[in-house]
């Protein structure tokens, strides 16, 4: 194994556990971990490998998601830092990418492979789904789980052909205009932005069952119910965005004001219409 080791993770939730694992293994955290903070299962991907595309993605997220905690600007800034750090990885380094069988991490993995495609590196995949199949992201695992994988996993680097193939898959993804992706049959599938709408409607119908027809369900309760039954990580802000679209279309009725999910509640406008 090469002397210089880089770990790459997707999403801030994985940072703490990997940092702890690296600290206990004696590796230098500051130089060995790159975290891409974006949620790659949602949002546009066109030209993301250049600044123009990343700015366009940021603008789309600002337009469509409720940035109630003013985090999107910070995420954009950290994403820029991460892309810069990727370009500075030492030649002949060993690179470990933490991923799982989810659209978010698998899309991010292909993005990184594209950025690193011309570098002479030993690249390894550590697939959390292989060991912990019921997790929705690597960030759900603690440092002990990650250390077990790191020490016991198959330490066989990808071939040049495998790396090229993943970089080419990224190029293909960027040719699509979809803003929502799922992991299906071992591949990333681009779907329409309303892909989960019927699922959201069904969950609201379940929550309203055995309640008075006039009862409104608070938005965080509905979002929690949806997230709890999804296999993909798409973020509560995206679900809130779809709920607001269902209100706009007249499928849901709203009580309150939509300045944030905790400020409004919803109910089905015509319950009988969606019983099928």
Automatic annotation (TrEMBL):
Pfam families recorded: DUF1835, DUF3658
DUF1835 domain location: 6-128
InterPro entries: DUF1835, DUF3658
Segments forming domain DUF3658: 156-264
Lineage: Bacteria, Bacillati, Bacillota, Bacilli, Bacillales
Name of this chain's protein: DUF1835 domain-containing protein
